[in-house]
Amino acid sequence: MKKLMKFTVADLRNIVRDPMQTMTAVAPLIIIVVIRIFLSVAREQVIQFFDYDIISDYPMIISFFSLLIPMMVGLVIGFIILDERDESMINYYAVTPLTKKGYLVFRMTVPIVFTFLVSVVFYLSLYDIYAVDLLKLLIVSSLLALQAPVFSFLMASFASNKVEGLAIGKLLGMMIVPPIANYFLVSNWSLLFFIVPQTWVSAIITGKNIGFLNLPMIVSLSLFIHVAIIIFCIKTFMKKVDGS
User: Fold this and answer.
1) Is residue 2 domain-resident?
2) What is the rounded CA–CA span in Å between residue 197 and residue 192?
3) Residue 25 belongs to a domain
4) What domain range includes position 212?
5) Is residue 3 part of a domain?
6) Could you give the dihedral angle defined by the CA atoms of residues 61, 121, 11 and 153, in that order, rounded to the nearest 10 degrees?
7) pLDDT tens digits, residue range 9-30?
8) Which of 45, 56, 117, 120 is 20 to 30 Å from the Cα of 142, by its Cα?
9) Model pTM greater than 0.85?
10) What is the crossing angle of helices 99-125 and 134-158, to 10°?
11) What is the DSSP letter of 98?
């Protein structure tokens, strides 16, 4: 436990030293504040200029912003992993009592726990705007939490440095496009969007294109997609580390 605390403190110090990482780390909390202001202002402006009430689109808008939380958390951890890989610290940890497996577990656990907590706070802070029942809140927050290490390990797998990591991070941001497309498109082809894990979160909140599934099936399929992608990301990352 003490070693994990030391790792966490060291991570916090590294994040604070880098302004970009600091801004990315606090972004999930900023999102909570911004969306409360944004929704009310945006609704008034849209009604005034377009005579359309976006309140019916609140589920999509809220779910869209929630998808940014694991992305931001994942990018921060991804930057840290890149530093540790470049400094050969991962190979060093492999021969310590922590072991390489322990390192991977730690690098997955922290973003998962943090993202879950922030996601719960995010939806609860908007309860007066869009009320989510407890079961749905826990399911969505859990899925969002599982998305954080996906961003971390994909970035660390395909980036050679922080500059490339930032570029790849922006590219990975395109993963929020399928959920938006799934919301607006009504077609059998929309089922392809569910290969992307982010689509499940949006669909659970909005109810789009999953009405034919019951809750156990939704949970099972969404977990399968998330876990399968995490396993792929970890295996890809380990090949990169072992080959370096």
Assistant:
1) no
2) 11
3) yes
4) 17-243
5) no
6) -40
7) 776 776 777 676 677 777 778 8
8) 56
9) yes
10) 140
11) T
